[in-house]
Design a protein that fits this description.
heterodimer, A: 129 residues, alpha+beta, six-stranded antiparallel β-sheet, three-stranded antiparallel β-sheet, globular, B: 359 residues, six-stranded antiparallel barrel, five-stranded antiparallel β-sheet, 20 strands, 21% helix, 34% strand, Glycine cleavage system H protein (chain A), 2-oxoA_DH_lipoyl-BS (chain A), Biotin_lipoyl (chain A), GCV_H (chain A), lipoyl (chain A)
Chain lengths: 129, 359
């Protein structure tokens, strides 16, 4: 699966979709879920929490390992996907559909400055070597 | 440079995700670790265990030597092919390794040791033999490969592929092996399921692997091997035990015979230092995943998780933990996971065996 071109990405393997109202939706990438393997637990942040860019906001645990999920930009958490509580494996099946949380960014320019699909692929490729 | 087993190319051809496992390039899974786990509990799967080492101890007095070398008593196995699980200790009681010995004859015991510890094990055995049994030969069988076939349908699949071994192996009880010429077949394993571990010449192992696969036996990675063995309550060297702890604090008390007259390496240290800790099972009551090295808080003091994971059979998180001796089955304890303390219940392990959850 290639990385969708309409999304933004972080070096720490989150994907970011900008919604019509300016909010952003965050999940983890295909590459990240492949590295982690079968997901068994997702811990999402509290709605209303104010976070800074690169701050740990959520945790995904696979059978193999736990991994932190980071805020791509500074802002406020506005929603979480509680369906992942009972079905964490949705992240394996559809990483770009199984979103984890939504944020209202402090500054829209921060989102525009994130990696595009091509730049993110370069990060993935460099990690493989 | 990572070491490779003779099945390395086969793993890649079958789509394995490969990882560095203690210096070996090994398959962690071929897709979904959870699917592979259930496959073994419900049907059959095969594991590349060529990285483990087969050692033959041969000569006069081999039994007497093993009686002194090992914490478990080699005198317990008198029927040819019978196997015994034992720890091998340092004089201070620390565990050098856990291993399986097979009694083949009074001139020949076969020993299978862990991959990561094989070199130090063999050096230790040779050093002890030089002092206590100089006529023995201790030979690392680097010419042999090993495949484990595990699951309720494992034996039938092996007989389908190696019909010439059926007559000699169908009457084997659990923990017994038969020497079938090129194939040494043992009814042992590390998953809590029925099955065979087959030792065979290295040059034949790839053909055997593909023949099993053609007969419907899928390959299983080290990921599922770890969750299967944890559910089965089997200790893993380097996690649940090592040279810094004694066998009585590592869940191996049942293998250590301190009552008989027999002397063995480490016995005096074990008698002089009664254990203050024990290995227990934990089941997480809150949501999360238990992992090795997390702290355990009990009313009697602190402990530590030695192995923890998600249990695919129980669909909750389980662990082995070293906790104070006075902690009881049924107690509720707290486990520190990141910055939170979550509740877990102390249980008697194994957690699952023969396809079923036991908790």
């Amino acid at each position: 699966m290639s990385n969708p071109a309409d999304l933004k990405y972080t070096e720490s393997h989150e994907w970011v979709r900008t919604e019509a109202d300016g909010s952003i939706t965050i999940g983890i990438t295909q590459h990240a879920q492949e590295l982690l393997g079968d997901m068994v637990f997702v811990e999402t942040p509290a709605v209303g929490r104010k976070v800074k860019a690169k701050e740990e906001v959520a945790v995904v645990e696979s059978v193999k390992a736990a991994a932190d999920v980071y805020a791509p930009v500074s802002g406020e958490v506005t929603a979480v996907n509680s369906e992942l509580d009972s079905a964490p494996e949705a992240i394996n099946a559809d990483p770009y559909g199984a979103w984890m949380f939504k944020m209202k960014p402090d500054n829209a320019a921060d989102v525009a400055a994130l990696l595009d699909a091509t730049a993110y692929q370069a990060v993935v490729d460099s990690e493989a070597h | 440079m990572l070491k490779k087993t003779p099945l390395n190319a086969a793993h890649r051809a079958m789509g394995a995700k490969m990882v560095d496992f203690g210096g070996w390039d090994m398959p962690v899974n071929y897709g979904s670790q959870i699917d592979e786990h259930h496959q073994v509990r419900n049907d059959v799967g095969m594991f590349d265990v060529c990285h483990m080492r087969v050692v033959d101890a041969k000569g006069d007095g081999v039994r007497a030597f093993l009686r002194y070398l090992l914490a478990n008593n080699a005198d317990k196995i008198t029927i040819p092919g019978k196997a015994l699980y034992s720890a091998m200790l340092r004089p201070n009681g620390g565990v050098i390794d856990d291993l399986i010995i097979y009694f083949m004859s009074e001139q020949w015991f076969r020993i299978v040791v862990n991959a990561g510890t094989a070199d130090k094990d063999i050096a230790w055995m040779k050093e002890q033999a030089a002092t206590h049994a100089p006529s023995l030969t201790i030979t690392s069988r680097d010419d042999l490969a090993m495949v484990a076939i595990q699951g309720p349908n494992a034996r039938a699949k092996v007989w389908q592929v190696l019909p010439q071994t059926k007559a000699a192996t169908e009457k084997l009880v659990n923990f017994q092996a038969a020497d079938c010429g090129e194939y040494f077949v043992a009814r042992t394993g590390y998953t809590g399921e029925d099955g065979f571990e087959v030792m065979l010449p290295k040059e034949k192992v790839e053909e055997f692997w593909y023949a099993l696969n053609k007969a419907g036996v899928p390959p299983i990675g080290l990921g599922a091997r770890d969750t299967l063995r944890l559910e089965a309550g089997m200790n893993l060297y380097g996690q649940d035990m090592d040279e810094s702890v004694g066998p009585l604090e590592s869940g191996l008390g049942w293998t250590v015979d301190l009552k008989s007259e027999r002397d063995f390496i480490g016995k005096a240290a074990l008698l002089a230092n009664p254990p203050s800790k024990q290995l227990v099972g934990l089941v997480l009551l809150d949501r999360g995943v238990l992992r090795g090295h997390q702290k355990v808080f009990t009313a009697q003091g602190e402990g530590e998780i030695t192995s923890g994971s998600f249990s695919p059979t129980l669909e909750r998180s389980i662990a082995l933990a070293r906790v104070p001796n006075s902690v009881k089955i049924g107690d509720t304890v707290q486990v520190e996971i990141r910055d939170k303390k979550l509740n877990a219940q102390v249980v008697k392990y194994p957690f699952a065996r023969n396809g079923k959850g036991l908790i």
